[in-house]
Amino acid sequence: MKALAGALCAATLLSACATTEQEVTVPLVEVPPDYATDLPPSGIDRDWWLGYGDPVLDALVRQGLAANLDIDAAADRLGAAAALLRAERSDLAPSVDGTAEAGLSVTTDSALTATAGLFGLFNPDINGRLAAEVRAAAADYAEAEYFLADQRRIVAAVIANQYIEYRRTGAQLELLEQSTDLQEQTLRIVTLRFEAGLAANLDVRRAAADLAQTRARRGLIAIARNEAENALAVLLAEPPGDFAVPDAGEAEIPDYGFGPPAGVPADLLRRRTDILAAEARLAQAAAEIGIERADLRPSLTIPGTLGIGDGTLGGLFRDFLIGVGAALDLPLFDGGRRRAEVAAAEFETQARLAEYNAVFLDALGEVENALVAIEAYQQRSDALADAIEESETALSQSNALYREGLASLFDVLDAQRQLIASRQSLIDSDAALAASHAAFHAAIGSD
Predict the structure, then answer these.
(1) Is residue 269 a part of any domain in this protein?
(2) CA separation for the pair 315, 115 (Å, rounded)
(3) How confident is the model at residue 349 (pLDDT cuts 50, 70, 90)?
(4) May I ask which residue range the UniProt record assigns to the signal sequence (predicted)?
């Protein structure tokens, strides 16, 4: 027993001294002190989609975050990672297994035989391998946790984008009705003038062709609207075809009423969940170096047994046999395999570091692109609003001149086309502006 106590003390000391923890310093890539644009801050960060002021969108996002299947899968993987982390931590504690055996000895003196016992094993982790495995499992758990949060970030943004597309197509359908009415009025006027001998049949054909072109757009808009609605159904774990977007009233593009939150690039991006997940993968790779380096050091296991009985059924609880030992494994020669595995783990860590920096740069690019898009589409929408006002005036004047015979139908149709095109472009620009706000919040990792 004294020898056993000495072995345990030595193992404890060796375990305390041994460390395989690999420190990895993440050199942040250079980031600009400010973003490329100067937009007013909003203060809105969590539940950023509330900035649209659209209760239908709010309900869809909340339903999606609760029911989305990708989020469910990520949550289950987080549960699996938590279980594996508990399993790795359990290896630091002693394990005990029980055994029992019974049989019939067929001899001249046949008798029942029975034995029972306990088998225990303790690994004091003198080479630090178990601790490194725990760190690797903890990093896997952290990555799974960040991945779950990242799925929520992505799902919220995609739902917002598909809803914006659904509203965009609704606005396009309303505009199509207005444009059709406008062109039908023009066709009636041209037809009356033709019947009165004041216009050529060519003018009637031109007006009819423009009307047919406008009507032909309905099918394409309907396809896009149906695709957006079906995409929303999938995101909300609803069967496409049976799902219908709740009535949103007038088909207007959601207008984001706030600017982006204040902050500098590095501060905003350090909380983005895919960056944090990449950092966790880097930590896991560093832990793998520790696991491989542990194999270069001696390892110690301490087995113990407790046998009960002398082999006979009557003596099952009469005799006891206790045995404790120690097994020391000394790595001597393996042809360089262990050191090669350490080198492979070190190269993998460097690869993970490069991937981390790549993820960071990609995220920075997404933020910059979204900010530039917000500013550009806002300016475009303002300009298109002016263009619509001017086109409406031009169309009104050309119609009046045409009735007086002072302008050709070509002038009327050209002004009409410009007005319709400007209205269509404004709808697309407003939708792109709304989507750019969603892209910005997704890029900075808003909750």
Answers:
(1) yes
(2) 9
(3) very high
(4) 1-18
The reply to whether the predicted model has a pTM over 0.90 is: no
In the chain, the amino acid numbered 313 is L
H helices within 113-200, ranges in order? 129-195
Q: What is the 3-state secondary structure (H, E, C) of 60-72?
A: HHHHHHHHCHHHH
Distance CA 413, CA 407 (A): 11
Q: List % helix, strand, coil for the chain (3-state, nearest 5).
A: 65, 10, 25
In a domain? residue 323: no
Residue 126: the pLDDT is 87
- Determine, yes or no, domain membership for 106: no
Helix (H) or strand (E) holding 16: helix 2-17
- The confidence band for 301, taking pLDDT boundaries of 50, 70 and 90, is confident
List, in sequence order, every residue forming a beta bridge with 312; answer none if it has no partner: 113
Range of the domain at 196: 22-92+128-297+344-444
Asked whether the beta carbons of 183 and 209 are under 8 A apart, the reply is no
Please count the structural domains in the chain: 1
pLDDT in tens, 155-171: 999 999 999 999 999 99
Q: What is the mean pLDDT of the chain?
A: 83
DSSP assignment of 73-116 equals: HHHHHHHHHHHHHHHHHHTTS-EEEEEEEEEEE-STT-EEEEEE
CATH number, domain with residue 84: 1.20.1600.10
Exposed / middle / buried, residue 71 (Cβ in 10 Å: 0-12, 13-18, 19+): buried
Whether 101 is covered by a domain: the verdict is no
